[in-house]
Amino acid sequence: MLSTVITAFISYVSTNIDDIFILMLFFSQTSSNMKIRHIIIGQYLGIGILTAISTAGALGISIIPQKYVGLLGFVPIYLGIKAYADYKKERNNGKDTERQENQRGENYKLEETGDVKANYITAFFKNLISPDIIKVASIAFANGGDNIGIYMPLFTSMNLTDILITVVMFAFLTALWCLIGKRLAEHSLIQKSIDKYKHILIPIIFIGLGFYILIESGTLAFIYKKIF
Fold first, then answer.
1. pTM of model > 0.70
2. pLDDT tens across 26-54, in order?
3. What is the CB neighbour count within 10 angstroms for residue 51?
4. Which of 43, 65, 109, 151 is the least buried, fewest Cβ under 10 Å from its Cβ?
5. CA–centroid distance for 69 within its chain
6. What whole-number distance in Å separates Cα of residue 113 and Cα of residue 154?
7. 176/174 Cα distance (integer angstroms)
8. CA 52, 56, 59, 63: dihedral to nearest 10 degrees?
9. What is the distance between the alpha carbons of residues 215 and 209, in angstroms, rounded to a whole number?
10. H helices within the chain, ranges in order?
């Protein structure tokens, strides 16, 4: 059992070390829309899907070819471009943005005066399927090509008990990763640096990550061959 725990730890750390910095960026962007729970749920969802695909592959079930998984590399590229576009828009239309936020706040107060139970249910489902959850999960999944490459042969060599122990370890380490990412984002020096340069830092990191995923997964070469 101890050897399984150690193997799971090494496998997770070696394939997800870069996720800490991505999580740090996400936690630095928490707001009234993107909440901490959205980031945590999204990260668990992304890692969970990678683990499920790896387990299925170990059982001889091919679900998604890696070159198609790599298509998700376009997600961080889109998010990076959107982050910079939103920054420019906010900078040019600061007053309009503030007015819209105030209007949204007033609308929310009006909604509270309605049926409390109906509003609670609506809010629950909105949080459950929040676009921010999908965003975090997509990046965690897209950045997991190396995860599948390591987890699949690892699970092939394990029995059911070892696989269950490994999955539990992955769940624990995902929580630890989220905690480290959150703590880093809250560090005063890092927080000040991100707040000052996030309009440059976030687009560069996300776009760079997207191209890295496309190249590393072979998706870029696959698209090139299809076109030319």
1. yes
2. 898 887 677 889 999 999 999 998 888 88
3. 22
4. 109
5. 14
6. 54
7. 5
8. -160
9. 10
10. 2-16, 19-27, 36-58, 66-69, 74-92, 94-112, 116-128, 131-142, 145-156, 160-186, 188-216, 219-227
